Amino acid sequence: KQAEKAVHQKKEQSKTKCRKARRRHINLVAEFNRRQRKNIWLETHIWHAKRFHMVKKWGYCLGNSPTEKSYRACYRAMTKHCLLQDLSYYCCLELTGKENELLKQLARICSIDTGLTFEEACCLSGRFEGSLNLYRADHYPEDMLGPVTFLWKPRDGSENRQLWIWVHPALKQDILRELKAIFQCSEPEEIYIPEPVATSIQEEKRMDVVLTLGKKRKKEDKEGEKAVPVKKIIGDGTRDPFQSYSWISQTTGIVISDKTMEILRYRLIGPLSHSVLTETLKAASLQTV
C-alpha cells in the first residue's frame, strides 16, 4: 500500500528541466505575461520580488518590506544621494475639454478655503504640480472624497486643455463617479476588450505546441520577430478589463479617460535627485517642418 501511494503522489516531471531553457528571453517574457494576469504587476515588479516581501493590495502586487536589512542604505540614499520609488499603482484620470468648462465644474468639488485649487495661476500654466482635497459636489466642508494631485498640460494655443489627476486606487471609483456626475459623462458605445490577455494565451498555446512536437525553442525564435512575445502590462487592478475606459459628455464635449498603468509615475527623494534626472534625461531637438 505504501508503494502504491508513493506512485500516485509522484509529481509529473517538468517539461523544461534545463535552467538554460527556462532563462531564455522568450520563456521569461511568456512567464511574465502569464503570472501577472491575476494580480497586476508594476514594471519594476521583478526587481522588487527579489528583494522585498510582496503583498496584494488594491488589485496590485506591491513590495511591502525588504527581505534584508537595507533601512540604513535607504536612509543614506534619501539624505545624501537619491532614492527612487515606483508609484505607478496610483490611478491617473485624464480630463480633456475647454478650459473654462473644466474650471467651472471642478470648482464644485474643491474650495479655496483649503488652499490651492485647480485655478491657481502657477498650476494652471502647467509649470507646477498641485495637490488638494476633493469633496462631493456642492457639499464642502462635508463628504470629503480624499486627497489628489493634479497637473495641467501646458497651453498650446487652443482653448482645449488636458488635466491629469492622480488618485489613490482605494479612492478611484468614488472620485471617478463624482467626476462623471458633474460633467454629465456617459459611457461610449465601444467596450474595451483586453487584447493582451488573448495574445498571451495564444502565445502559451503556441509554446505548448512547440514542446509537444519536440522542437527547440531557440529555433522557434528565429522564425521572425513576430514570434517573440512582448512584455505586456494587462489592464489595471482597479477596473474590470471588460469595462469602458473613456467617457464623453454630449453637452459640453468633456472627455474623461482612465490612464491607469498607461502613464507611469516615479518619485525621486534626495539632494541629488535633480542631478540624476539631468544625467538620465536628454532634451530632444525640435524639428520644424
Automatic annotation (TrEMBL):
Protein name per the record: POP1 protein
Q: Show where the Pop1 N-terminal domain sits.
A: 4-97
Q: Which organism is it from?
A: Spizaetus tyrannus (black hawk-eagle)
Gene transcribed to yield this protein: Pop1
> Mind naming one GO cellular-component term on file for this protein?
nucleolar ribonuclease P complex
One Pfam family named in its UniProt record: POP1_N
Superkingdom of this protein's organism: Eukaryota
The record's Gene Ontology biological-process terms are:
tRNA 5'-leader removal
